[in-house]
Structure formats: structure tokens, C-alpha cells
Amino acid sequence: MIHIPVLKKEVLEYLNPKPNENFIDCTVGEGGHAEVLLEKTGPGGKVLGIDLDPQQIEKCKLQLAQFSARAILINDSYVNLKEIVERKSFGPVNGILLDLGMSSAQLEGTQKGFSFKLDQGLDMRYNDEAGYFTAEKIINEWPENKLEEILREYGEEKFSKKIAKNITEQRKQGRIKTTFELIEIIKDATPSQYWRGKIHYATRTFQALRIAVNDELNNLEKVLPDAVSVLPSGGRLVAISFHSLEDRIVKNFFRQAASAKATASQVKILTKKPVIASPGEIKTNSRSRSAKLRAAIKI
Fold it and tell me: Using CA atoms, how far apart are residues 208 and 214, in angstroms rounded to an integer?
């Protein structure tokens, strides 16, 4: 499966990499964006690539092998950004990228239950050793009101109450263990017209569970101020989000950091509106359809 980095041209435009500059890719994945940054920053520029998923790091090592020591890859959470930068003595940092989307390989190439297209166990952890609980634990052990809350808030699921109620009823018959079992429970809790919508009727529930398992929104809120603090004056921060919750967090943070009340972390916003993929890119890479890029420069 070939990985196609989303909004590659736009990432280069807003990060504006030059020879011998250094960048951090906080969600390096399979190395698509890191590769083009390394190409632009030769001969001496480096990229520090971070990813919580160890399988992604292994794939990235192969993808970036040609760049040798210029590619520094770390299996860790970007929430530890400042500590990683200090530990690796990485700098000066000219720009930071946060590509918050999952790759197709993660969705369908693992046995983690991220995809509702495959019958797998309900895991959904990016990293087995990260200490997070699994989606199976949430589904089978969390109270109904807490299930409803995460489906509503993290998935923006309009049938959150009915789905949460059906989950708690069905688990009385036995532990819910697989993606296909969960899909049937969601289907039984929603009206038939919902099954024929633009997106699969299980999409929002699966999104909510993945976010809850990996604490994605809280981690994003934590890393944004740390990213700005790592940057020197003139350093750039680019964030690509794939759903409204992430985009709202990035938008609000940039607005606050650009306000007159901001101090050491003040930025100038480079994107008045989120940058979206061109029709041509959407045609060749359907994942880019929901991508929104926002960028800022530290003052």
C-alpha cells in the first residue's frame, strides 16, 4: 500500500524549508512529509520524526534510509515534545508539523480494530505499551452515561444515546469483542435511513472510541503551546486536522496565541481560513477530502 502524504505542496509552502534548516514532524507516520522536508533541507538539515505507533516508525526507517543520520526517528508521543527535543539536543527548530490523520495502513493494515471494514478485536491503541485502555474495555466496562458522552462529544454522533443504550444492553449477553459485533449493535440502534448516509453509520462511533483510547484531543491541546515554545522567532507551525474537533482546537489556540494578551508564545496566523485540498488531490487521494491545514509563525 503506497502512502500519499496529504497537502504536500501546501505543507512546503507554509513551512518554507530551506537548505540546512531543521524541522520536527510530530506525527511522522510513514515519512511522506518528512521525506520532502529532508529533500528541501539538504545537505545538512535534519528532521526529528515522532510517532506513537512503533510499526509506523519501522516503516519510516525504510522510507527515509537514504537520508541516514539526517532523519532522527523516535517512537514516543508528541505530548512529550519538549522532553524529546531536550533529550536529543535537537535544534535550532525552524518549523513543526502536526499531521493528525491516520494512514490507510493504520486503518486497514493492523489488527487493532480501527476499521469497520475488517472483523478484528476492539483494541484501537496506537501503542500497546503506552498504558492506554482498549476500546473493548470502554465498550464493556464504562457506564452508559460515560459511553453516551464520548460518542456525543468525540464522535459528534446524533444517535449517541440510543447506541450507548444498545451497547449496555447487548453486553449483558456476553462481552463485546470484535468490530463486526459492534457494527451490528450500532446498526440495530439507528434508523435505516442512517445506514445509507454519505459516511458509514459506524464511522462516528469508531472515531469517538479511537479518540478516547488514545486521549487524542487532550494531547493536542497540550502539544500546541509546547510546539510554539520550542520554536524561535520566525519558526513556523503547521497543523493538518481531519475532523472538526481537532480543527476547532487548533483554530482556537492560534487565535489565543495571536491575541494582544499573548506573551512569549505569540504568533501571527498565516491562514485566515483553513487550507483544503485541491480537486485534483482529492481525485488521486480521497483521504485529503476532509483535511484542513492551518499555519502560524512565531513572532
Answer: 10
User: How many Å apart are CA 179 and CA 182, to the nearest integer?
Assistant: 5
- Percent of the chain at pLDDT above 70? 94
Question: What CA–CA distances, in Å, run from 93 to 64, 215, 280?
Answer: 20, 26, 32
Task: Answer for the pair 177, 122: CB distance below 8 angstroms, yes or no.
Answer: yes
> Domain of 163?
133-214
Are 146 and 274 found together in one domain?
no
CA distances from 253 to 106, 204, 242, 265, 295 (A): 28, 24, 17, 11, 11
* Max Cα–Cα distance, the chain, nearest Å: 62
Q: Looking at the predicted structure, is the pLDDT value of residue 264 above 80?
A: no
Residue 43 lies in a domain: yes
Indicate the helix (H) or strand (E) that contains 118: none
**Residue 41: inside a domain:** yes
CATH of the domain at 49: 3.40.50.150
- Give residue 165's pLDDT: 98
The single-letter code of the amino acid at 113 is G
**146 & 198 share domain:** yes
Helix 160-170, helix 179-189: angle, nearest 10: 130
pLDDT tops 70 at residue 210: yes
Q: Rounded to whole angstroms, how far apart are CA atoms 164 and 152?
A: 10
For residue 265, is it within any domain?
Answer: yes
Q: Does 59 reside within a domain?
A: yes
* Residue 265 pLDDT > 70: no
CB atoms within 10 A of CB 44: 10
**Helix segments in 171-215, DSSP class H:** 179-189, 203-214
pLDDT of residue 107: 56
Q: What is the count of structural domains for the chain? A: 2
**What's the mean pLDDT when you consider all of the chain?**
92
Phi, psi angle pair for 118, to nearest 5°:
-120, 145
